[in-house]
Each structure stands twice: as structure tokens, then as C-alpha cells.
Amino acid sequence: MGTHYDLVCAECTPAELTEVCESCADRADQKSFPSGWHGEPEVLLRDRELGGTWSARPCPVRPLNDGCLAPMPGHWLALTAEGFVRITDDDQWLVGPVELPEETHEDIRTFPDRPRRGLHTSRDGRFAAVVYEYGQFATVVDLDEWVTVLDLDRDWNDNELTRFPLAFLGEGETAKVVAGTDWNRLDVFALPGGEQLTDRVTAAPPHGEPEPEHYLDYFQGALHPSPSERWLVTDGWVWHPIGAPQAVDLATWLGGDRHAAEQARGLTPGRENEWDQPIAWLDDTTVAIQRMGTSWRRMLDGVELYDAETGRRTGMFAGPAGRMWAHGGLLYVAAEAGLEVWDPAEGARIGLLEGFAPIAHDPASGAFAELRNDQLRTWTTPR
Hints:
Layout: H1 22-31, E1 44-45, E2 53-58, E3 69-72, E4 75-80, E5 83-87, E6 92-96, E7 116-121, E8 127-133, E9 137-142, E10 147-153, E11 166-169, E12 176-182, E13 185-190, E14 219-225, E15 231-238, E16 242-243, E17 246-249, H2 250-254, E18 265-266, E19 271-272, E20 279-281, E21 286-292, E22 300-307, E23 313-318, E24 323-327, E25 330-334, E26 338-343, E27 348-354, E28 360-362, E29 367-372, E30 375-380
Parallel strand pairs: 1-27
Antiparallel strand pairs: 2-30, 3-4, 4-5, 5-6, 7-8, 8-9, 9-10, 11-12, 12-13, 14-15, 15-16, 15-17, 16-19, 17-18, 20-21, 21-22, 22-23, 24-25, 25-26, 26-27, 28-29, 29-30
């Protein structure tokens, strides 16, 4: 890959390097991930023709923000000031309004751009969720029946620092939603009925008493299910303040281990003041997390790769910075210049769609969608 480095002790830098065996080097690397860097990484640019299919048409639909367009089977759903709008290849129409409780917590004044609304859709397109990113409330709507099936409240405790934890799982008779129900708690609900499937005790103990065995001192953040939904990465943090992405074994949790969500596997050594970073699954066990390093003062733009099953870092490469998706083993990054395509196997950028700024991706079709200037523009990856 594009990033090669030598591991040295911070106290004796610069130091004379010593050769060690491969297993010792790996053990030292995994246990002492670099807190800082000397020198600059090589960013590999190997751009080539990407192919794919373009389409564009007039579309006077204006999402509330870049988190308010989501894929549906064969079309898109937008959240606008008027409510949900369906967007097909040749038309768009208002489905109906959606309401959330007003966010009133005083910490909002510290972050005037928060909370803001975000949109999630289920794989089969039946359900949509509107959340307050960096806020307290969310609601899940059955679009087929046009009824609210679930109202969610994750409490006010420091929620202005993380995206609302929510992700849809399954489809049809197996449809579920996993979401934050407290600052440190996730639950899974069956759809469309909204029955809670993960009842357990996680409450904090009274002041002065010891914490119970399964108490979790962790602020939940954005959720990222793996393609087969075996794993769930949550992008949260712990005090004081350390970003700590974790992998929850969903199969074990839903299979009867009531506290699997409180026993998640950490994926990074801990990132000082760094969380809420772009995350994407390359395959069902490999997750890509942006930024390289552990100290916010000395991190580099790039991607670290982790094995969710073992928690091991399996690779990293410099360069990617921006909203990120994965498709077909490649990473797609909405950078300033346009949509970048990165090949983790090469550790290199292999293409750039200059000026294209998508805000949504359909994993089923491989399409990316840009909605601006009253135009819907899409690019679909080659088959």
C-alpha cells in the first residue's frame, strides 16, 4: 500500500533503526499505534478511465441538507421543508409531511449548526427514519401505510457531539431498526410493530454505588451495519474525550446474548478528540475508517482498515478525506475536487469524477446521486 513507515519511540526520535523479526514488528505496531508522524506520506494517484453510466434531468427538489437524500428500490427519497418527496427517473411528488419534537436543550446554543435533520431508508423502501443528527429525537415511518411506527429519544446527555445512532436491518418479515434509546444504549425493534427485541438492564447505579457488570460508559454515535448485517460498527466516544469505534456482534446479540452490545470490540487504539469520521465497509469483515493516527494534533488524511472479527488493523493508506462510501471493494470519497475512487488493494486513487458532488449512494445499483441547481445527476458504477 502507499504508506510505508518505520516505528520509533517518541522519546528517542530521531533514532537509529533496528531490524526485528516480522512477528515482533507486528506486535509492536498493533500495540503502539503511532501518536504522531515525522515526514509526509506518499499519496498514490493512479487515475484511469472509470467508465460507468451518467444520467441527468431537471429536478426542482431541494433536500434540507446533504444528509437528506436516500436510496429507494429504483428511485430516491428526499426530505425537504415540505416533507418526504419521491424522485423517479422522470417525476417527483410530495409523499407527505413528517414531524419531530422540537430540540430545546441548552447545549444547542454552543453548536448553532446543530442539530440538523438526517434521513435513513430501509433496504426494501418500506420504512424511512428522520433523525436529529447531533440531537435527541428520531421517528420511523411506514411509507406503505403512512403511519409512524416508532418515536425514539436517546436522552440529552452530550448528544450534540454525535450523529443519532440509527440503522435499518433486514427487509420484509425480518425488517428491524437498531437505534439509540439512551446516551449509552442501543436497542433493536421489530418492524412494523415496533416491538423491542433487546430488553435488558443497563441503567446507571445510584450515586456512590459500584457500576453493574454490564454498565456501558460510552457515548453512542453513528451506526454502520456490515453488508450481511453480521456486524455493527458504532462511531462513539468515551470520556475524556477519546473517539472509540466499536464493532457489535449483531448475530450474537440477536441470537440471545442480551448484553452483546455492551461487550463490543474496540477497533482503534483510541483517538484523542477524534470521532464522527467517515466509515464504510469494504466487505463483511473489513471496515475502513478515515484519519490515520491517534492524536488529533498529528493525524493524517487517509484510511485505516480493520478486521471487525479480530479488531486488528490490517492496512492503511494516505489520501482520502471526505464523505465516504464503499462499493464493489472500492472506496468512493466526495472530495473537494469531485468524487474520488480509491482501491484499497493498491492503496491508491484510481479515478476522479471532477466536479461531481454526490450526497447519496444506492448500494443495490451502485448509483451515486447529486441533487443541486434544480438538477438530479447520477453516475452508476460499471458492472
